[in-house]
Amino acid sequence: MKKKLSLFFKFFNFYIAAILMAACISEDERPDTPAGNFEALWQIIDEHYCFFAYKQHEYGLDWQEVYNKYKVRVNEKMTEVQLFEVLCDMLAELRDGHVNLSTSYDYGRYWTWQEAYPKNFSDSLSRIYMGTDYKIASGMKYRVLDDNIGYIRYESCQDPIGEGNLDDVLAYFALCRGIIIDIRNNGGGDLTNAEKLAARFVHEKTLVGYMQHKTGKGHDDFSDMEAQYLEPSSNIRWYKPVCVLTNRSVFSAANEFTSMMHALPNVKIVGDKTGGGSGMPMSSSLPNGWSVRYSACPMYDKDKQQTEFGIEPDYNVQLTDEDTMKGIDTIIEAARKLLVE
Asked: Label partner for 314 (CA 20 to 30 A): which of 40, 205, 217, 250?
């Protein structure tokens, strides 16, 4: 029987192919000068970034106009710090949290995708709901709430999850009416962890999205969309209702986890729209040694819709000041109601 290939290995193979493709591309040699580094950065993004068409449609991004706008700010007398500021400002035009410029002294980033929105999460409320006697299984904190609802707090997809951890957690929740998976403020990390967790809630091979990769230097040079499937775990799986809690700080691999879970019939997404970050990133270097990271492979949901700017919840619930003052997490309570209906 043909061996099944997980989502991770598909992504991994695309990632390796993208790196090899980038390594084979002979970029024009640029001098290590302010102008040379500016030209190199603009060209790298121009040839390899994956969301130009989408962002032109969404907010009118024109990368050639961006070039014209920032080129006049570059001169040979500027300092390294001044150049870094100009280049970061130029990259911010992409409005992409996966686009970063790294130096030995700073890390350029675009964080407006979360900073311009309500947090919809409170550490103090989290401590109230978790108490002090919660259990810990690798990267997951979990407990049973007083209405017999299982609650998992998963703060980062960078935190590893073992199959044994998941077996123990789900066995512990066996008599619960449903499960809440709280991934608010989860900024992403290792996609294999997101896939491993989602596989416990799917019961047959399920279409969860699509992916493309760059095939050339043109803005529209992409492969055909390739369907991405989630395979059910061969270990303990959960058949009862599930609510996934999200906010604007859910990004990258956590955004993909939301997209996968959104494709499942027994799952509801509750809270705020996610932060997005659906492009698989890769990196290149400038003549001066600075590293630039950018989105290279676009990923879509099961309906072939972009999730780069986030995923809308099934139930949009905001954390209210009134509830917060009472020690109540509005979003958790909304999920609890849905699970007992």
From this structure: 205
* Alpha-carbon dihedral angle through residues 100, 225, 276, 123, given to the nearest 10 degrees: -110
CA nearest neighbour of 311 among 267, 266, 271: 271
Q: Is 242 exposed, middle or buried (0-12, 13-18, 19+ CB in 10 A)?
A: buried
> pLDDT of 250-283, one tens digit each?
999 999 999 999 999 999 999 999 999 999 999 9
Query: Distance between CA atoms of 291 and 101, rounded to whole angstroms?
Result: 6
Neighbours of 85 (CB within 10 A): 15
Tokens encoding 278: 């659906």
Of 141, 136, 50, the residue nearest 99 (C-alpha): 50
H or E segment at 100? Answer: strand 100-102
Q: What is the reported pTM?
A: 0.90
Please report, for residues 4, 184, 207, 241, the alpha-carbon distance to residue 1 in angstroms, rounded to integers and kept in the order given: 9, 40, 20, 33
Q: How far is CA 168 from CA 69, 135, 232, 329, in A?
A: 56, 11, 17, 27
As a whole number of angstroms, the distance between CA 189 and CA 186 comes to 9
**pLDDT tens-digit map of 146-181:** 999 999 999 999 999 999 999 999 999 999 999 999
Token output for 205 = 């091979």
236: which 2 tokens?
């303990």
Contact 272, 318 (CB under 8 A): yes
Phi, psi of 48 (to 5 degrees): -125, -15
